[in-house]
Amino acid sequence: MIQGVRVELNLDDVTVTHKEEAHRFEATVDGLRSLITYRRFPDRLILRHTEVPAPLEGKGLAAKLTRAALDFARANHLRVVPLCPYVSSYLRQHREYQDLLSEDDLQKVLTRGS
């Protein structure tokens, strides 16, 4: 692939797949894989890393992956521990998911954005 090439996409056409055995959510567009990795415990989901290839950056894929992971946590009654800076930033901007955080983690997320 040529560096600097941008890929056009419609997020509605992108499917996020939960690869539970690999501990990640992923989406593939034009052969390029974007992902968010996690570690699961009985009571919590630690969101570790979000990765989007350069040609797909700025298209909303990281947000779509993050929503999938957060919705999974909610459906499974798991607390979220955001180690990934992108996830922390997303949570600062999306109050509807902040109830998934412990009070301590919520304060950390909110103060890092100041």
How would you concisely characterize the structure shown here?
With 114 residues, this protein is α+β, with helices and mostly antiparallel strands. 30% of the residues lie in helices and 26% in strands.
Report on the architecture of this protein.
The chain is an alpha+beta fold. It has a single domain, classed as Gcn5-related N-acetyltransferase (GNAT) (Aminopeptidase, 3-Layer(aba) Sandwich). It is 30% helix and 26% strand. Strand 3 (32-40) and strand 4 form a beta hairpin. The longest helix is centred in the middle third of the chain and has 15 residues, at 61-75. The radius of gyration is 14 Å and the shape is globular. It starts with 16 loop residues before the first strand and ends with a helix.
Labels describing this entry:
114 residues, alpha+beta, Aminopeptidase, 5-stranded mixed beta sheet, 3 helices, 5 strands
Question: Uncertain spans, ≥5 residues at pLDDT below 50?
Answer: none
Order of helices and strands: EEEEHEHH
Query: What is the arithmetic mean of pLDDT?
Result: 92
The count of domains is: 1
Give the CA-based shape.
globular
Q: What is the rounded Rg?
A: 14 Å
Question: What portion of residues is helical?
Answer: 25-40%
At the third CATH level, what is the topology name? Aminopeptidase
- Give me the side-by-side strand order of the main sheet: 1-2-3-4-5
The count of β-strands is: 5
Strand fraction: 25-35%
How far do the termini sit from each other? 38 Å
> So, CATH architecture?
3-Layer(aba) Sandwich
Structural class: alpha+beta
Task: Quickly name the level 1 CATH class.
Answer: Alpha Beta
Note the total helix count.
3
- State the fourth-level CATH superfamily: Gcn5-related N-acetyltransferase (GNAT)
